[in-house]
Structures are given as structure tokens and as C-alpha cells.
Design goal:
Helix 8 runs antiparallel to helix 9. The strands form two sheets. Strands 1-2 form a two-stranded antiparallel ribbon. The chain has a two-stranded antiparallel ribbon with strand order 3-4. The protein has two domains: 137 residues, Glycosyltransferase, CATH 1.50.10; 319 residues, Alpha/alpha barrel (Glycosyltransferase), CATH 1.50.10. The protein is globular. By secondary structure, it is mostly helical.
């Protein structure tokens, strides 16, 4: 997002709007006496104030006409951006803000509309458009890899044979989406061999650990036609995933050890998303993968990850969910991961997580939680029941072993009673997270695949199966 924004800041392009398209209603008293400067902290010596003073100094230097390295910097930023909007990706980072910034930057640089790079950037951006009969909206990104992996898992755990053509076709599609380019992650992670999966159709510079863990959990359930080829892919991706463990024992999404909080005090870090923090849900999902493929549960990486989960547990027993709304998501994923890796699920600290889930069950038997919890933790676990969050809670409680608990039975009845005639569930609520406190994501498949997975999990546990066998094991 920042590189094209730096180009835009150099040129400072403006466009005059007609009066009827201005936004005067945002400032009904006018802007003449409005102070648009970022406020300083009351304390004198803080990181925020240091950065703001540096910002003031840079603005003063900017007035000096002599800028000997500006052209070189501009050319390097342009080269970097052009490389990343090339054929390997469907736009810069394949996410709305970066793609929009890139379009504006290309115009500012003087690229004509006929230029292939600008034409591609425009086409990629328009690929996010949804023009329904009664609505027009722009999606922040697309999620085919993520959705495909979860659907494979839900279908395979529900009893679809590992040789089923649909699973075979989906697994082959996923295997072809493996990223083999050492993207920007290689700056902080010296791991020599590229692998992993991105969220979108094509995003070769930014694979992530969340998708990679989910894809590997999906591929392990499909009987491969080419066992040797899949085995090499699986072990390569597993090593890549393992290499991203951060120094605190957790896993982040895109990078390694970009967790220093002082960076959030930079003036342009207004989304509080300049970092890539480790989080409990990604760490637990990685442990879940490890458990399914017979990874050594006494390995130092596993023990470090478990210590991380213990350290990040909230006082009430729950866990924060970075990539799903919110504490229900985090707590479910941690409990599921701990069961998979072979933890004793009767430990007090683990049962506190189960008890927290039970404490926020709604009267109708379901669970719900709103995006407001990211800014108001007192709202955690509160909200209208949804199919996906109910499924997460059921799976979290089931992971602790007692399938006859009243909370589980009531949750199952909620899912069965709200299932529609065609087998689907309705869910208008938003249960996915983009940037906490900034924007959230509605995954339309969540209302289908997670209830299906929860019902399958319950049936499999009841039969004593635990989880379906894996076709791949850790070497």
C-alpha cells in the first residue's frame, strides 16, 4: 500500500470536483479553522511524538528544491510496483487499497490508458466489482484458495470418499496454486525454498501461513493420483510453514517477527495494521496441522507454540481471534489445535476455554458475536446467533471430549432447526476480519462449510474416529 502511496505523495495529483459532488456535509462549519494535524500525546517523550516531530522536519526539508536522490527513489518505487502488478498477481497484493493506490500512481507517473500495465491494473481492479440488480459494491479481495481448502475439509470429514472426482479436481487445482517465488517475505525469513499458498487466485509475492496450513490440512485428506509429486509438495510447504514461527512462539500471517509495537506510532499507520502480529488462531491452526500429520509433539517448535497459547489466553479463559470474529473464533481454533496436537484436554487452563464458550451460548442454543468486540472487549461473546459462529463453538467444546454436554446438544439443535430446505443456512451477519477496527469480511461460504464441518466433527467424534486419516505424514 505504501510504495504507490509514496509515488502519489511525490506528484500530489488533485482533481477539482463540481459543487454538487463535494463532501461539505462532513464539515458543516467549514474547514477554514479546522486543524488537520495529527494530535500529539500529552506526554512529551513518546514514540508517537518522536515520529510526528520527524514528520514536521521532513515537511520542512521537502520545501528545499534540491533533492538529489528523489529521481532515483522514484524510479525504484516505480520498478518495485511494476514488478508486483505483473503476470504473477491479479493486481498489487491483490487487495483493494493497494490496487487502487497503484492505479492512481500509474496515472500520476504519466502512463497512458493504452499502456499494458495500466490496462491490466484497471482490469484487475474491476475484477473486484459486484454489480447486483439492487446494489453495487467493490470487494476488498477474492478468496478462492481459502474457500476451496475449507470446502475440501468439510466434504471429506463428512464422508465424501478421498477418491471422489470433486475432491481430486479441487486438490489438483490447489496444488497448481502453490507459490514458488521468494516474495517479500524473504526479507525477514531466510528460508531458501519458496512454497505456500496465497488467499486469492494469483498473488505470488504474498503467500500466507493461514492459507498454507488450511491447504495442507485439505490435501492430506485427498488420495493423490501422483503420490510422489504430492509428497514433495507437502514436505516443501510444511518446511516453509515451519520457518515462519516467530521468536515469541507464535505464527503471523505474512511475515516473520514484524511484531514491534513502536512501529504503530508512525503517522501513516492509521489502520493499526502496519505490523503482522502473531496470533492465537494462526498458531493453533498450525498445531492442528502438525497433529494430523504425526509431527513430533515434543518438538521445540510445538512446545514453544503451546507456551505462546498459554501466555495469550484471556483472564476469562477465551482467546482473541485475529482473522475471524472474534473470541469465539480464537477460542474454537485453539481448542481444536490443542486436541489435534495431543494435549490433555482435561487441563484446567484448557477447560477454562471450553467453559467460556458455554458461558456465552444464547437462549436459542446458538452463538453469536459482533465486530464491535474488537473495540469493546466487554461485548465479547455477545450477539445474534449465526450458523458459522455456532459451528465454531460446537467444535471447540467437542474438542474437550464430552459430547453429551447440554451446550453441544443445544448447539446441534440450533443448527438443525435453522437449516433451510435446500440444505443451506442463512447468515447476513459479518463473521470474518480484515483489519480489526477498520474493516471486516463476509465469507458467503462460512454459513455452509463450517456448520457442515461441525456436524461431521460431532459424528466422527461420536464414532470414535477423531479425524480422518491423512495420506501424508511428517518425514
Amino acid at each position: 500500500m505504501l510504495v504507490p502511496l509514496a509515488i502519489i505523495n511525490h506528484f500530489k495529483p488533485t482533481r477539482e470536483l463540481p459543487g454538487e459532488k463535494q463532501l461539505h456535509e462532513l464539515y458543516p462549519l467549514g474547514t477554514e479553522h479546522k486543524d488537520f494535524r495529527l494530535p500529539r500525546d500529552e506526554r512529551t517523550f513518546t514514540w508517537r511524538n518522536l515520529f510526528l516531530r520527524g514528520d514536521d522536519a521532513l515537511k520542512m526539508l521537502h520545501r528545499i528544491p534540491w533533492k538529489p536522490f528523489r529521481r532515483l527513489a522514484l524510479e525504484e518505487a516505480e520498478r518495485w510496483m511494476m514488478e508486483r502488478i505483473g503476470d504473477g498477481s491479479d493486481g498489487l497484493a491483490t487487495v483493494y487499497p493497494a490496487m487502487l493506490n497503484a492505479l492512481i500512481a500509474l496515472h500520476a507517473l504519466g502512463y497512458p490508458n493504452s499502456h499494458p500495465a495500466l490496462a491490466k491494473a484497471q482490469k484487475d481492479f474491476e475484477g473486484l466489482f459486484v454489480n447486483d440488480p439492487e446494489d453495487f459494491r467493490i470487494q476488498p479481495c477474492l478468496s478462492p484458495v481459502w474457500d476451496t481448502a475449507i470446502n475440501i475439509i468439510a466434504l471429506a470429514e463428512s464422508g465424501l470418499p478421498a477418491e471422489h472426482p470433486s475432491l481430486q479436481k479441487a486438490a489438483a487445482w490447489l496444488s497448481n496454486k502453490e507459490v514458488r517465488i521468494r516474495g517479500d517475505w524473504a526479507k525477514n525469513n531466510p528460508h531458501p525454498e519458496a512454497s505456500g499458498w496465497a488467499f486469492e487466485y494469483n498473488n505470488v509475492y504474498y503467500p500466507d501461513t493461514d492459507d498454507t496450513a488450511m491447504v495442507l490440512m485439505a490435501l492430506r485428506l485427498v488420495h493423490p493420483k501422483d503420490k510422489n509429486g504430492y509428497e514433495d509438495l507437502f514436505q516443501r510447504a510444511l518446511a516453509w510453514q515451519l520457518s515462519f514461527q516467530c521468536r515469541d512462539g507464535g505464527w503471523a500471517a505474512f511475515d516473520k517477527d514484524v511484531i514491534d509495537g513502536w512501529l504503530e506510532n508512525m503517522p501513516f499507520a492509521d489502520h493499526n495494521a502496519i505490523l503482522d502480529p502473531t496470533c492465537s488462531d494462526l498458531t493453533a491452526r498450525t498445531l492442528e496441522l502438525f497433529g494430523y500429520i504425526n509431527f513430533n509433539q515434543h518438538d521445540a517448535s510445538v512446545e514453544s507454540a503451546i507456551r505462546y497459547l498459554i501466555a495469550t489466553q484471556e483472564d476469562d479463559g477465551s482467546w482473541y481471534g485475529r482473522w475471524g470474529v472474534n473470541y469465539i473464533y480464537g477460542t474454537w481454533q485453539v481448542l481444536r489445535g490443542l486436541r489435534a496436537i495431543g494435549q490433555d484436554m482435561t487441563q484446567d487452563w484448557i477447560l477454562r476455554g471450553r467453559d467460556w464458550l458455554e458461558s456465552c451460548q444464547n437462549d436459542d442454543g446458538g452463538w453469536g458475536e459482533t465486530c464491535a468486540t474488537y473495540e469493546d472487549p466487554s461485548a465479547k461473546g455477545k450477539g445474534e446467533s449465526t450458523a458459522s459462529q455456532t459451528a465454531w463453538a460446537i467444535m471447540g467444546i467437542c474438542a474437550c471430549g464430552d459430547l453429551n454436554r447440554l451446550s453441544v446438544q443445544r448447539g446441534l439443535r440450533y443448527l438443525l432447526s435453522t437449516q433451510q430446505a435446500d440444505g443451506s443456512w442463512n447468515e447476513p451477519q459479518i463473521t470474518g476480519t480484515g483489519f480489526p477496527g477498520v474493516f471486516y469480511l463476509k465469507y458467503d461460504m462460512y454459513r455452509q462449510n463450517f456448520p457442515l464441518l461441525a456436524l461431521a466433527t460431532y459424528v466422527n467424534y461420536r464414532r470414535g474416529l477423531g479425524h480422518p486419516p491423512s495420506f501424508f505424514r511428517c518425514n
